[in-house]
Amino acid sequence: MFNVTFISQSEKKGIKRVQAVLDRYAIRISDNTWNTDITQEGLKVVYETLKKITTKQVAVCCYKKTKGNMVLFWSLGKTIQ
User: Is the pLDDT of residue 79 over 90?
Assistant: First the structure.
């Protein structure tokens, strides 16, 4: 079981697409941030679902929390800076 945080910097239509997916799997803690405890299999489902909707307007990062640190687990779409 992982505690993960998803951060989205999507634009235009990508915002609504990402929100629809992540709202199904995680609790929204701000406009573009979600947090949840999730299994490896569940995380794979989220990744594959987001991968299907990824366009130039989508940018999502997944951070895994470990001992007080947040480590980038994966990212999809355009580069978030």
Answer: no
